[in-house]
Write a structure and sequence with these properties.
Elements (H helix, E strand, L loop, with lengths): L9 E4 L12 E7 L8 E6 L15 E6 L3 E3 L2
């Protein structure tokens, strides 16, 4: 996987392994790095409930930072 991912990329967190997560559970809004350990950080708009797929009852309204080692592009 090549980092940095561009702003606007649909992503999922590596801990989200369920099938629906493959379409993405967050969107990259900002990129920082590279850091000395060669990682990047992504500010993403993620779902309110991390454990559920996005939808009207679980919108992507939570802004949070994910490290590139834990961020996977959507399939």
């Amino acid at each position: 996987m090549t980092h940095p991912l561009p702003v606007g990329t649909r992503v999922r967190h590596y801990g989200q392994q369920w099938p629906a997560a493959r379409a993405g559970t967050a969107t990259v809004r900002e990129v920082r790095g590279p850091y000395p350990d060669k990682t990047w950080e992504y500010r993403v708009d993620a779902t309110v409930d991390f454990s559920r797929q996005p939808g009207p009852d679980n919108p992507e309204t939570r802004s949070t930072w994910w490290n590139s080692s834990a961020t996977r592009p959507a399939a």
